């Protein structure tokens, strides 16, 4: 079955999922966030085939999420700034998984402040002024990159959400 590409969609989420929508890609990024750099270590920690790992590492390089560096006789993979920014998404998914798909024994990994050992607070939504928001507090408006189809979809959503 041929994979559908969303690169031409007028939707930031769809375009991001073109890269992050494959679970192996997210797990590779998680491993890189945790300090994995070598091909064999990625393979050992993730339990994936060399062929799949090689394809995913190449894709993540093509999208500027990982960069490959020669280190003496070996090649190492490092997250770029773009790749490091995915940490918020990964942490959010981990916290969501701990809440809604918990193991009986508890969380397999607890993320903590490295300096103090204090666990991270659950990630949440806030506006640019720092005001915490719930889903019901969030609206949509067309951004500068919205095409006419997106603008019409947003108008429909706004009409449906307007007070009666």
Automatic annotation (TrEMBL):
Organism for this UniProt entry: Pseudomonas saudiphocaensis
Gene3D superfamilies in the cross-refs: Winged helix-like DNA-binding domain superfamily/Winged helix DNA-binding domain
Residue ranges annotated for the HTH hxlR-type domain, each copy included: 11-105
GO BP field: regulation of DNA-templated transcription
Name listed for the protein in its UniProt record: HxlR family transcriptional regulator
Residues spanning the signal sequence: none
Keywords: DNA-binding, Transcription, Transcription regulation
GO molecular function, one term: DNA binding
């Amino acid at each position: 079955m041929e994979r559908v590409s969303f690169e031409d969609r007028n939707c930031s989420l769809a375009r991001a999922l073109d890269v992050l929508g494959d679970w192996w890609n997210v797990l590779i990024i998680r491993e890189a966030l945790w300090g994995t750099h070598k091909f064999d270590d990625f393979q050992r920690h993730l339990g994936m085939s060399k062929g799949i790992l090689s394809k995913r590492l190449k894709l993540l390089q093509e999208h500027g999420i990982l960069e490959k560096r020669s280190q003496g006789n070996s090649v190492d993979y490092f997250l770029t700034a773009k790749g490091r920014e995915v940490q918020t998404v990964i942490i959010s998914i981990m916290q969501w998984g701990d809440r809604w798909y918990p193991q009986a024994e508890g969380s397999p990994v607890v993320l903590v402040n490295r300096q103090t050992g204090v666990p991270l607070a659950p990630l949440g939504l806030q506006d640019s002024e720092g005001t915490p928001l719930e889903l019901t507090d969030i609206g949509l408006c067309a951004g500068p990159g919205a095409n006419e189809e997106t603008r019409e979809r947003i108008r429909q959503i706004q009409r449906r959400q307007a007070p009666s």
